[in-house]
Structure formats: C-alpha cells, structure tokens
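Hi C.,

You asked whether I'd gotten around to modeling the 270-residue construct. I have! Everything is below, sequence then structure, no commentary in between.
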Amino acid sequence: MSRAPRIYISAGEPSGDAHAAAVVTALKRRLPGATVEAFGGPDLEAAGAAVLDRMEQFSVVGFVEALWKLPAHLRLLRRVRLGFQARRYDLVILVDYPGYHLRVAAEAAAAGIPVLYYIAPQMWAWAPGRVRKLAAVRRLAVILPFEEAFFRERGVAATFVGHPLKDRMPPPPRADARRRLGLDPARPVLGLFPGSRAQEVKRLWPAFRDAAVRVVAARPDVQVVVAGTARGRYPACTWRIRSPCSRPPTPVSASRGRPPSRRRSLTCPW
C-alpha cells in the first residue's frame, strides 16, 4: 500500500472504548501516518481517533432499552454502510458489542473491506450455533486461551492475543492504595460496582447506595468506595478527584484503565 492506511474502529460501550483506545495507540506507534475514524467515546478520542459518532447515546442495558435504541442503531448502521460502500477504509476493527458489530461486519465484508474483530462474542457460553454469524470476519482476535481452538474448530480464523488487563500496571498494595484515596488502612472498605454505562448506573445506583447505607448503619467503621465513571451520576455522594498519578485500589479496580484525569472514586457521607 503506497498511501497511509485508513482504518475504521468501532466500540459501543465504555469498556470497549478503553480497549479500542489501546489498539489505536498501538497502531499509531506502528503506523504513525494512519488515519483512524471511529464510533466510540472519550478514550478513543484521547488516543487520536476521529470520533464520527459518539457511543454514549447508544449504550443500553436490557431488552426493552435495546428495542428503544434500535432505530438509532439502524440509522448509525446506514451511515457506516455508506462509508464502507464509498471505500473510505482499508480495514475495519470491531471491539466487542456483538449485537451491533455482527451487522457491521457483514456490511464491511459486503463492501470488500477486511474485518478484524477484537474480543470475541462469548458464543461458547450462550450460542455456539451462532458462530456462523462470524463468517464476515477476516480475523478474530480472542483474549481467552481456549477461545482460539473453539472458533478455529468451527471455521473461524482466530488468534489468541492475550487479555488486555495483562497490559496494565498492577494495582499497588492494598494499604498503600487506601492511603492514596485518603482511607484508613486499618478500617474495612466496602467497594460498590454499579456498572459503567450511564443507564446501568442510573438503574442500579439507588439499590447499591441504599444497601451501603444499611451496611454502614450496622458497621459504622466501614468505609464505602464506589467505582465511578465519567458520565455516571451518583446522588448523595461527593466526588473526590484523584491526581493524574494516582492508582485506584483493589476495591475500585473496575475503574482501572481509564485515563488518569478521569479516574475517580467516591466517598459517601454516611
């Protein structure tokens, strides 16, 4: 290829956005002239991708919400299809999010664009018979060792590439992490993990909060820490913004891997 490659990468939820951003960072090191356009969020944007469509308005939880968002996904798919048909890209990279991405893969393949699917759908757990839907994928990059054989035995070109969590710095010792968050290392800590999608947090947070209130009422020595996200809303709590060099402790490890400027923890006034 005489010109710099044009790549489209797609991630439909916060975890996928973080993993996709790591892919773009690696691509930029190896192919500094590559143009990367994306469906994604702030992590992809920070990694240098031109985000054409923001993922935040598409992330859903549950069957009813998925139906409600279906028209928006179809409009997005239509825009993406036009880009594929115009031959704007040399490669399409899809990260997780199979409900939408299996359709995108089919559209890319129909336009003659190779597809790399990173973080395979867990079909081995819930739908082995649906592996045929991966026929449009040129290469499947899997993150669990046994997945390579599972998909290859069913005709999909799969390669084990390692789990993305292995690329991250290990968390500090528990006592040190608690000190960094202003917590007393000698007191117990209750970690709350209400999810990463905005709608998921909105739905689950009241129950998590109320349960924590009951725990603290029974055990006043307990300190509560919440794995927070940039877009989540957590009523009845006050934010403590961490410095860019801080690392989250083990109880809030769900927030690991986010850009340091947005890595946050919560302490609740109970």
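If it helps when you're writing up: The CA atoms of residues 6 and 120 lie 23 Å apart.

Thanks,
B.
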